[in-house]
Amino acid sequence: MALLRRFVSSSPSTSTLLRSVSHCPRFFSSASEDQTLIIETSVPFTGHKIETPSRSVETTPKELLSFFRGMSLMRRMEIAADSLYKAKLIRGFCHLYDGQEAVAVGMEAAITKKDSIITAYRDHCIFIGRGGTLVEAFAELMGRTAGCSNGKGGSMHFYKKDARFYGGHGIVGAQIPLGCGLAFAQKYSKEDTVNFTLYGDGAANQGQLFEALNMSALWDLPVILVCENNHYGMGTAEWKASKSPAYYKRGDYVPGLKVDGMDALAVKQACRFAKQHALANGPIILEMDTYRYHGHSMSDPGSTYRTRDEISGIRQERDPIERVRKLILSHDLASASELKDMEKEIRKEVDDAIAKAKEIPMPDPSELFTNVYVKGYGVESFGADRKEVRAILP
Ligand SMILES: Cc1ncc(C[n+]2csc(CCOP(=O)(O)OP(=O)(O)O)c2C)c(N)n1
Ligand SMILES: [Mg+2]
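# thiamine diphosphate complex -> structure
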């Protein structure tokens, strides 16, 4: 019970898991739910200028079930978003995260909500990991007022300030210096917290990463740069875009670790290790070897620059949810049918959230000019002669 409480408080996002698994007495009646299990990561970590952490990861039955539930919920949410997009209920840009769920879930298992996170536009599941609700997510996707950005951000601009999630950024790489800035603020405020800045393999070739790394290393900022290497930037394979696709080594003087990003336990181990390192020594890069099942965005079928065999091969051999399902079954923590029941419940939870979100109105047009500038710092816009004020935004 003590562990259950600790688990809930350290990871509010997975409290929905506990609600669901408690329907099944087997999960919570036995003392074994808190028992320590040691599980080897799928592959060893590879280090750059750093000793690698152990491959043996401590976990518990409860944690494995929470990983299963958390990732299944994220997967279902993304599949549902795909359908809503095709039904034209979601408009504009929309980038899905299915395949990459182990990064969101493993990272959350290693950190607290006092640590901050910032990411690019593939942000729905990071928001859920931070404790965001399905209704807030679907409402945002469909431009409704109850959305996590009041329905004005859309898919690419999810935020959750109370859990220190700072978005949700559409400009490739732009979140990297912002993340290092967050780490600067956290260090300046003498907090014992870190920032996780997530970016893609495409963004890893940008100049601003190296500028931000230089300053972060100079000032020993507590920042963990997480390169989610899904091996493609839009339709361009990493080997066509990168002279060196060893992104964990790209920081030169900054240490790095290559991690199986499809293995939630490996992600947890790496993130815990990286947090300790960053607090004591400054920045570190974690390259998460992962894969996106969907195309880059909703306008990309995702099958012209990679083969269907490649996608189905990854699904069969490396799927993050199936990996945890196998662990649960092989340790006899739940039966196959109990896991299926959990998946059915998740499907219903997602459907209910969508139904609720659809009922919520869109913002009033007067909202167009609110929350654009910090209060008192609005803008005055002049014409070409710089004399006549053409517009004042509050
Ligand atoms: C500065 C900038 N250049 C180009 C784009 C167009 N663009 C959007 S996503 C993307 C690819 C980024 O790939 P990666 O960093 O690997 O992230 P992934 O989509 O794989 O998660 C590009 C080129 C952009 N949004 N911003
Ligand atoms: Mg990529």
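# post-check
Residues 1-25 have pLDDT under 50 and may be disordered.
The two ends are 51 Å apart (CA to CA).
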